[in-house]
C-alpha cells in the first residue's frame, strides 16, 4: 500500500513538473497556486522605476492583449509591485509572483526587468483574472542569439522590427545582423559611398527567378541598404527590448559586393559584378595593406554605430587560390615571415583584431579563424560542427555554438513534398529541441561556451514571410534550449506549443510551419 502510494505520488509529481507552463521558454521554477488575482483589464505600476522608452514598449505589448498598463497614482497602490534586488546570481534572472493582492516582481537589472515583463505578458490569458503563480527564473546561457542574413535577400527595417519583437518575446538577447556578403552590401559607409550605390544592387536575372523560364528573365536590379540613421534606430529599438545587435562585416571572403564597388581591393583588380548566384567565390579581399586599411575604416564607422562589445568580422569560406597567385599577397607573406596562405589569413584577422581591440571592442568570427592560429582575444562562432568551438574553448577563447546540424534554420524542417525549396539539409523541430551547446565539452572548459545561436541564411528565403516560416516554431525550441536546456519532455513542449504559443504567433501575424505535427514526416 505504502509503496503504491509512493509510486503514485512520484508519478503525479513528475507528471506535474513535466508539463509546460504558459510561458515560453519555460521558466526554471514554476509553482502554480490557487491564489488568483482578479482585476479589470487595468494593471498599474510605479513607472518611475521603469525607463520611459521601456514603459512605452510595455504599454504597447500589453495593449495587444487588451491590458491597460498605467502609471500608479501612488506607489503603494500599484497592482504590479517592483522590487530591485542585488542577490540574483545571474543578472538576467527575476522572480515573479501572482497572488490575490497583485503581482510582485523582483529584478536585478534592465535585462531582468524585461524578462519578468515578457513572462507576465505570456501569463495573461484573460483580461480579468491571473492565475496564482510563483516563478523564479534565470537563463542557462548568457548568449542566446539569432542571426539573419540580410545580404542574400534584403528585409526592410519594418520587417526587422517585427522580427525583433518576436525574439524579445522568447527572451533571446542577441541579434546577429549579417550585413555584407557576395550578393549585396547592406550598410551605408560614409567614407565609401560606392559600397551602397554599387554594392547594394545586383542583377536579379538568376536569383529571385527560380520559377521562371529564361525567356521570362528580366534584368531588373535587386537590393537595398540601411542608412546609418536606420541602423542606429534599429539598435535602439532592439536595446529597449533587451536585445543587443551584433553587426557582421565579412572578410576576407564573401566580398564580391564590396569588390564590385572597389575592384582595386581584390588581388586581380578585375571589375566584376555583385554576385548574381549563390556559393563561395574565389575573388576575395586581397591581403595587402590598402585593403586592410579600407576594412579598418569601415569598422571604425561600424563601431560608431553599434555599441556591442563584440563585432563580427566573418572569416569563413575564404578560398586562397587568388592569394597564392598574387604578388601583393606574396610580399605581405615575405615581409611577415609567413609560410602558408592559412597563416596569411591568420595574420589578416590578427591585424584587424588589433585595430578593433584598440577601440575597446572584441572580434568574433566563424570557426575558420582558428586556421593558422587564433587571434589572441577573438571569440569563435562554431558553425562547421562543435569541434571548432571545443578547440577554441580549450584555448580559453569564448565560444558561441551554432553547428549546422542543430542551428541552420535554412535547412528543411520536414520531408513533406510541399515544403518550399530550401538549401538542403534536414533539421526538424525535435532535433533543434535536443541541441546541447555544451555536449562533448570537458567540464573545465564549459565556462567558455557562452551559448548558442540559430542562423537564418537567406539564399532560399526571399521574403520575410519565408524567413518567418523557417524560423517558427524552430526558434521557440531554440529558446527553450538556451534558457532552460529543454527541461520539459519534448511531447509536453509540443503540446503546449500547439495550444498556447502558435495561437500567439497567429495573433501577431507571424507565419509558421506546422509540419512538426505530422509524425510521418
Ligand atoms: C555557409 S555558415 C555559409 C553561408 C551560407 C550557408 C548556407 C557560414 C559561416 N557560411 O555563407 O549562406 O552556409 O547554409
TrEMBL record:
One of its GO terms (cellular component) is membrane. GO terms for biological process: carbohydrate metabolic process; glycosaminoglycan metabolic process. Keywords: Glycosidase, Hydrolase, Signal. Residues 141-485 form the Glycoside hydrolase family 20 catalytic domain. It catalyses: Hydrolysis of terminal non-reducing N-acetyl-D-hexosamine residues in N-acetyl-beta-D-hexosaminides. The keyword Signal applies. Residues 23-138 form the Beta-hexosaminidase bacterial type N-terminal domain. Residues 1-18 form the signal peptide. GO terms for molecular function: beta-N-acetylhexosaminidase activity. The active site is at residue 317. Its EC number is 3.2.1.52. It is an enzyme of class 3 (hydrolase). Belongs to the glycosyl hydrolase 20 family. This is beta-N-acetylhexosaminidase. The lineage of its organism: Bacteria, Pseudomonadati, Bacteroidota, Flavobacteriia, Flavobacteriales. The chain holds residues 1 to 521 of 735 of the full protein.
Amino acid at each position: 500500500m505504502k509503496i503504491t502510494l509512493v509510486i503514485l505520488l512520484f508519478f503525479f509529481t513528475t507528471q506535474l513538473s513535466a508539463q509546460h507552463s504558459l510561458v515560453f521558454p519555460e521558466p526554471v521554477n514554476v509553482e502554480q497556486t490557487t491564489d488568483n488575482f482578479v482585476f479589470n483589464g487595468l494593471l498599474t505600476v510605479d513607472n518611475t522605476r521603469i525607463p520611459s522608452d521601456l514603459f512605452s514598449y510595455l504599454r504597447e505589448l500589453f495593449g495587444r492583449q487588451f491590458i491597460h498598463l498605467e502609471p500608479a497614482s501612488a506607489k503603494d497602490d500599484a497592482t504590479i509591485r517592483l522590487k530591485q534586488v542585488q542577490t540574483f546570481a545571474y543578472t538576467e534572472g527575476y522572480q515573479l509572483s501572482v497572488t490575490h493582492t497583485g503581482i510582485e516582481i523582483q529584478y536585478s537589472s534592465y535585462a531582468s526587468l524585461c524578462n519578468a515583463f515578457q513572462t507576465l505578458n505570456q501569463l495573461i490569458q484573460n483580461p480579468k483574472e491571473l492565475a496564482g503563480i510563483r516563478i523564479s527564473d534565470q537563463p542557462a546561457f548568457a548568449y542566446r542569439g539569432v542571426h539573419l542574413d540580410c545580404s542574400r535577400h534584403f528585409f526592410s527595417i519594418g520587417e526587422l522590427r517585427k522580427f525583433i519583437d518576436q525574439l524579445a518575446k522568447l527572451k533571446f538577447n542577441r541579434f546577429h545582423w549579417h550585413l555584407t556578403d557576395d550578393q549585396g552590401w547592406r550598410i551605408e559607409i560614409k567614407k565609401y559611398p560606392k559600397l551602397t550605390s554599387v554594392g547594394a544592387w545586383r542583377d536579379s536575372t538568376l536569383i529571385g527567378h527560380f520559377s521562371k523560364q529564361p525567356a521570362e528573365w528580366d534584368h531588373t536590379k535587386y537590393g537595398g541598404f540601411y542608412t546609418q540613421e536606420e541602423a542606429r534606430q534599429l539598435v535602439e529599438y532592439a536595446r529597449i527590448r533587451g536585445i543587443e545587435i551584433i553587426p557582421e562585416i565579412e572578410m576576407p571572403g564573401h566580398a564580391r559586393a564590396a569588390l564590385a564597388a572597389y575592384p582595386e581591393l581584390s588581388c586581380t583588380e578585375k571589375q566584376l559584378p555583385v554576385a548574381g548566384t549563390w556559393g563561395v567565390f574565389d575573388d576575395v579581399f586581397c591581403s595587402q595593406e590598402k585593403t586592410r586599411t579600407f576594412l579598418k575604416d569601415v569598422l571604425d564607422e561600424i563601431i560608431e554605430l553599434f555599441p556591442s562589445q563584440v563585432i563580427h568580422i566573418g572569416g569563413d569560406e575564404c578560398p586562397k587560390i587568388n592569394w597564392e597567385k598574387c604578388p601583393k599577397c606574396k610580399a605581405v607573406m615575405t615581409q611577415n615571415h609567413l609560410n602558408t596562405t592559412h597563416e596569411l589569413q591568420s595574420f589578416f584577422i590578427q591585424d584587424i583584431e588589433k585595430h578593433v581591440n584598440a577601440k575597446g571592442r572584441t572580434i568574433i568570427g566563424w570557426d575558420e579563424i582558428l586556421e593558422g592560429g587564433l587571434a589572441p582575444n577573438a571569440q569563435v562562432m562554431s558553425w562547421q560542427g562543435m569541434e571548432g568551438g571545443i578547440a577554441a574553448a580549450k584555448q580559453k577563447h569564448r565560444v558561441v555554438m551554432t553547428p549546422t546540424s542543430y542551428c541552420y534554420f535554412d535547412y528543411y524542417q520536414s520531408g513533406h513534398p510541399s515544403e518550399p525549396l530550401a538549401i538542403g539539409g534536414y533539421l526538424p523541430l525535435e532535433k533543434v529541441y535536443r541541441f546541447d551547446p555544451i555536449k562533448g565539452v570537458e567540464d573545465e572548459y564549459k565556462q567558455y561556451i557562452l551559448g548558442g545561436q540559430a542562423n537564418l541564411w537567406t539564399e532560399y528565403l526571399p521574403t520575410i514571410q519565408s524567413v518567418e516560416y523557417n524560423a517558427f516554431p524552430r526558434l521557440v525550441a531554440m529558446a527553450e534550449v538556451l534558457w532552460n536546456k529543454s527541461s520539459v519532455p519534448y511531447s509536453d513542449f509540443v503540446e503546449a506549443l500547439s495550444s498556447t504559443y502558435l495561437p500567439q504567433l497567429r495573433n501577431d501575424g507571424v507565419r509558421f510551419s506546422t509540419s512538426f505535427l505530422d509524425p510521418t514526416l
